[in-house]
Amino acid sequence: MSEYQLLVVSDSLDQPRIERVVLSPLGAGRYRLDDQDVLGCRPPLFWQDVIEAKEIDDAELRFIRVVQRADPSMVLLELGEDVCTASLTPVGFRIYRLESTQWQVEPSLFYHDLIEADQSGEARFRYVRLAQRSELEVRTMTPPNELIDTAEALSLLNWLSLQGGHWQRDWGNVLVLSIPKDAENEFDNRWETRKWSLDSVAESIHRLRLRSCTRRLATSSRAFLLTTGFSVRMRKRWFSEFLVKTFMFV
After folding, report:
1. How far apart are CA 160 and CA 140, in angstroms?
2. Inter-residue contact 46 to 71 (CB < 8 Å)
3. Taking the CB of the first residue and of the last residue of the chain, which one, N or C, has fewer CB atoms within 10 A?
4. CB contact set of 92 (below 8 Å; sequence gap of 6+)
5. What are the pLDDT tens digits along the chain (250 aa)?
6. Is 0.85 topped by the overall pTM?
């Protein structure tokens, strides 16, 4: 069973540091990290990594080593003052191909860009330069969360992956797409054919939200009017004006 534990690790200066993490005991002093990445330590620890740790007392564990990486390609990448997690594949001497997009850093790095980097520790790299940009077309979209989760949208995104492209979802509804040049026209056509369906879903979602909002406001307003001294006629008139104003500003 997963539970919060205090894990003593080493920081970048090899000084003891305590992290509060969620661990699942696997037996024989081994644990799986079940909550989130722990990046402020050496080596960095990533979600679902299996680690070995020793009990200090009932409340604390001391990190010993990483037994198994959940994703061996996942590293901590340092870009000057910026730090991010990235998936790297070695393709040459100090040259690595990115298997994910990191657009929040400077410079922005995209899927299948080639970079030069120096390894500075276990699962830790220091960015040197951009060796070659990917030939994939990069696009950014911000559709509503509900649309991304529809079968139509997911089907299109999965199709893109099968064509050698890539899609990444960040911050809830930010979609970063990397599209092969020979699949651009087909992607655009498929997107357009689904656009009316997606727009229909969006309109339905808006109507449901509007209806729910109006119901909540109307219920509160009725309760308010019943506690006042308004006559029945005045209540009906006030409530009608209230609904008109509500629809105008939603």
Report:
1. 14
2. yes
3. N
4. none
5. 788 999 999 998 889 999 999 999 999 999 999 988 999 999 999 999 999 999 998 779 999 999 999 999 999 999 988 899 999 999 999 999 999 999 888 899 999 999 999 999 999 999 999 999 999 999 988 877 777 888 888 899 999 999 999 999 987 788 899 999 999 999 988 887 765 455 554 454 445 454 544 455 555 545 544 455 545 555 555 555 544 444 444 3
6. no
Residue 114 φ/ψ, nearest 5 degrees: -105, 130
3-state secondary structure labels for all residues of 165-199 = CEEEEECCCEEEEEECHHHHHHHHHHHHHHHHHHH
Residue 5 corresponds to which amino acid?
Q
Q: Please, is 191 exposed, middle or buried when counting C-beta atoms within 10 Å of its C-beta (0-12, 13-18, 19+)?
A: middle
Nearest to 70 by CA among 53, 90, 87: 87
